[in-house]
Amino acid sequence: MYNSDTPTRADLPTSQQLLRSTVIALIVAAVLLVAVVLPAEYGIDPTGVGRLLNLTEMGEIKQQLEAEAEADAQAASPAALPEIAGEASPAAATGEGEAVADEQAGTPDGWREEFTLTLAPAAGTDLKLVMSPGDAVTYEWTVDQGHLNSDLHTDTGPEGGSHRYRFGRAETEVAGDFTAVSDGAHGWFWRNRSDVDVTVTLRVRGTYQGVQ
After folding, report:
1. What's the pTM value of the predicted model, to 2 decimals?
2. Which of the residues 16, 150, 171, 209 has an alpha carbon 20 to 30 A from that of 4?
3. Torsion angle of alpha carbons 188, 36, 55, 154, nearest 10°?
């Protein structure tokens, strides 16, 4: 069995070469931090490279939606939310009782419930479903005009913090599903960033214990 030859001292990098390599690595890491990480994660773009690569917009979306969701969670109360139009089941209206099975649809097209909310320009609000871990919901929402920023999340994640399922910016319709990762309220926060009143219609079906 052949073992490779042990390098001689002359073949090993000198302390100066190692120091130079370390400095170069630190410079590259700093450049990536400033040009890529800061724009993509925080919307901070001191070099302008992030905007050229469309990273700054992504970071701005993240920061805007996180700030809006946090502000809504702290300031919103049931009394402050706009009136929700729609026929809610007794369990959904009170938060009591057992989850209703999908076949007990509340709308003619098979959705369990439908809700309609109207947001003035710059206004924001949320609607959440009370769910247990493993509960699954299918949903779709559409707007009549304009567009909305959206954040589908829960403030009671499995490790005590918030958990985001998805987010989006300037959306007019979204359809999908999600499975609750924890006990608590899981649902949507919308912000109207268009210059007209926007009416959003949300339809849901699946397993949940109520609406909050």
Report:
1. 0.55
2. 16
3. 0
